[in-house]
Amino acid sequence: MGTAIATHVPSGASVLLGAQLEQMIPFAAGHEIIRQGIRELTLMGPISDILFDQMIGAGCVARVYAAWVGNVSAGVGYCFRRAMEDGLPSPIEMLDYSNFTMALALHAGALGVPFLPTYSTLGSDLLEKNSKLREFVSPLPAYGTADRKEKLVAVEALRPDVAILHVQRCDEFGNAHVWGNLGVAVDAARAARTVVVVAEEIVSPSVIASDPNRTLIPGFLVAAVVHQPGGAHPSPVQGYYGRDHAYFAQYHEQSRSAGDFESWKARWVTGVADRGEYMNLLGSCRVEALGVKEHAYSAPADFGY
Amino acid sequence: MDRPENVCAIRSVKPGAPSAGSVRDDSLGHGYSLGQLMVAAAAREIHDHEIVFVGMRLPMLGFLVARRTHAPGAIGLYENGVIRETPATELLYTMADPPNLRGATFCGQMLDVMALLQQGRVNVGFLGAAEVDRFGNLNSTLARRDGKTIRLPGSGGACDIACLAQRTVVLLQHERARLPERVAYVTSPGNGKGDSAVNSAGNSIGNNAWKNAGNTSGNSAEKPSARRSEHAWRRAQGLPANSGPSAVITTKGVMRFDAAGEAFLASVHPGAEIEDVLANTGWPLRVAEKLQVTAVPAAAELAVMREIDPQGFWTK
C-alpha cells in the first residue's frame, strides 16, 4: 500500500474515492495518504461517508468535488464543517454536485467526451454555483416533439488522475471482480488516468475468467494492485464483512472538535504503521463480529458450449 | 405518463381513536407514536404498482408498509443502483448495507436507476431536508443560524429526485427555523418563487385549486392530482412537465401545493393545534378550507412496522 500510494498519489493530484457509495470505501488507502502527508489533493466522489471528512481534517485536501460529504449514519462531518466554515485546518473549495451529475461527469470522462446533458439540477443553486454544470439550449428538438428546443445542463467530464477502488477479488494483473454495490465504480475506472485496486483476495486469472461478466475493471487499466484484507473497514464489503455502525457513531463523537479529531487520528491513523496494525487495534473480537454469519452464494452461470 | 388510478382504500378512522394493538413507544397516547403516524402517512403517498425512490429511515419503513398493505406491486429503487421488491431482513443504517443487497432483484450502477428517474418512470421520491420553504424548495447544503452559515452535507441524490420524480414527498420536523419563507440555498428545486413570479395569471388558478383541495376524500388518501404538472416556474427552468413537490409530511401535519406552487396545510395530525402549526411555520401558511385530520395508522400498518422495526428504532 505504501508504495502504491507514494507512486500514484502525488501532492496536488485529483483522487477519486468512494465510488461504491457506502460500500467498499478505500479507508486503508485514505489513511496511508494521511500518513504520507500528501497535500493539496482534489477529492472526487459521489458521497464519501467519513473518509473525505478524515482526509480534510488531516489537511490533505484543497478541493472537493462531491454530492455529499458527512457521516451517513450519524449526520454531519465535523472536519468538513470546520474547513468550510472556519478554514481549519486549511480552507477548501467545494464544488457541489448531485449524485446523478457526479455519475454523468465520470461517464463523460469514461466515454471520452467533454460533457453529457441532463435535466437534473435545472432551477437549483447547484447549477448556479458549480462552474462545471452549464445550462445550454439543445440543438435537437425535445423527444417526441417536432421543434421544441429544451434547456439542458451540460455536465463537464471529470478525469481524475487516479481512482482508488476497493474490490472483492482480483488477479495479480488487476482484473477485478466486483459485486453488490457498484455505484459509479465502472465509470470511475475508465474515466481515471490511473487505477489503484485494493482487493480483499488475490485469485488466479482462471477464477476471473470463469465469470467474465463480473469483471468490472479490466486489468490493463490498473497501475497497482494492493492485497489488503479489511481495507474497507468500517465500510462493508459484500460477502466479506459487514458495516461497523458503531465505528461511524464513535467517529462522530470523537471528531466534534479539532482536538478530538487529532486524538482520533493519532489513535487510528498516525498511531499505526499500516492496516495490519489497525486491524490489531480493532481487535479480533470486533473483526470476528463483523464477519459473514451466513454465506449466500449466487447460482453458478454456465459458460459452457 | 400513465399512472395507476387505484388509490389505496383507507378505512374510516375517527381522529384520535385508538387503533388495535399496543406499542411501547406510544408518544401520542393513542396507541401509536408520532413516527408511526408519519410512516403511515408516507406509505399512503405510494399507490399500487408505482415505482418509488425510497430513501432511508421513515420513508423506507413507509415503503415497506405500503408494499405489505395497499401497494403490493410497488417497486423500490435505491440510488446506489439497487432495485428490490422484498424488505431486507435486518434494519438498515445505509442503503448499501449488505442486507439490502442480499435478495435484491437488481444490483447495478447508479446510472441504471438514475436513467429510470430521468425518463420520468419514477412515480414518487422521498426526501428529507434541513429546510423546506413556502414553495417547496429544499435546502440540505447551508443553514444560517444566529448570523453564522453552517455547512451541511449537500444534495446526495436529493436534487436529482426533486428535479425528475413525478411527485416528491418530504418528511421533516415542524420547526419555524426549518420552514422559512425562502430557503438560504436551493439544493433541490420545488416550485421556485411560485408561479405568480413567472405569470400573474397563475394566482387565480392557484387560489381555486387551493380552495378545492380540502374536498378530496379520506384524510391523507387524496390522490396527488395532476395540478402540479404545469407549474410555470418549473417549466421556465426547463424541468420535466410531470414533476414536482406533492406533499410535506411534518411532525405536526401534512402540507400540499396549490396550482400556483404554494404550500397549504392540508391536514393536521391528531392532537396538533392549527395555531401551533401556524406559529411554527416561517411564512403565513394558508389552511385548506376543509382541513383534514391526518389518518391514524391502521392496525395492519402498525403490525408491519412492529415486525420490521421491533425496537421502534426509527419511529420512537
Q: Quick gist of this model?
A:
The complex is a heterodimer of chains A (305) and B (316). Chain A has helices at residues 2-8, 27-35, 50-57, 78-86, 99-111, 125-129, 185-191, 205-209, 245-253, 258-268, 275-282, 284-290, and strands at 14-16, 41-47, 61-68, 93-96, 115-118, 133-141, 149-156, 162-170, 176-177, 194-202, 215-217, 222-227.
Report on this model:
The complex is a heterodimer of chains A (305) and B (316). Chain A is α/β, with parallel strands linked by helices and 305 residues long. Chain A is 32% helix and 24% strand. Chain A has two domains: 2-97 and 159-289, 3-Layer(aba) Sandwich (Glutaconate Coenzyme A-transferase); 115-156, no CATH class. The mean pLDDT of chain A is 97. Chain B is globular, with a radius of gyration of 18 Å. The longest helix of chain B has 12 residues, at 202-213. Chain B has helices spanning 34-43, 58-68, 98-101, 110-118, 158-164, 202-213, 232-237, 274-279, 299-308; strands at 51-53, 75-78, 82-84, 106-107, 124-127, 131-132, 138-139, 142-145, 148-151, 167-172, 245-250, 253-257, 263-268, 286-293. Chain B is α/β, with parallel strands linked by helices and 316 residues long. Chain B has one domain (10-308): Glutaconate Coenzyme A-transferase, CATH 3.40.1080.10. At the A-B interface, strand 3, helix 4, helix 5, strand 7 and helix 7 of A face helix 4, strand 9, helix 5 and helix 7 of B.
List the helices and strands and how they pair.
The complex is a heterodimer of chains A (305) and B (316).
Chain A: H1 2-8, E1 14-16, H2 27-35, E2 41-47, H3 50-57, E3 61-68, H4 78-86, E4 93-96, H5 99-111, E5 115-118, H6 125-129, E6 133-141, E7 149-156, E8 162-170, E9 176-177, H7 185-191, E10 194-202, H8 205-209, E11 215-217, E12 222-227, H9 245-253, H10 258-268, H11 275-282, H12 284-290
Parallel strand pairs in A: 1-2, 1-8, 2-3, 3-4, 8-10, 10-12
Antiparallel strand pairs in A: 5-7, 6-7, 8-9, 9-11
Chain B: H1 34-43, E1 51-53, H2 58-68, E2 75-78, E3 82-84, H3 98-101, E4 106-107, H4 110-118, E5 124-127, E6 131-132, E7 138-139, E8 142-145, E9 148-151, H5 158-164, E10 167-172, H6 202-213, H7 232-237, E11 245-250, E12 253-257, E13 263-268, H8 274-279, E14 286-293, H9 299-308
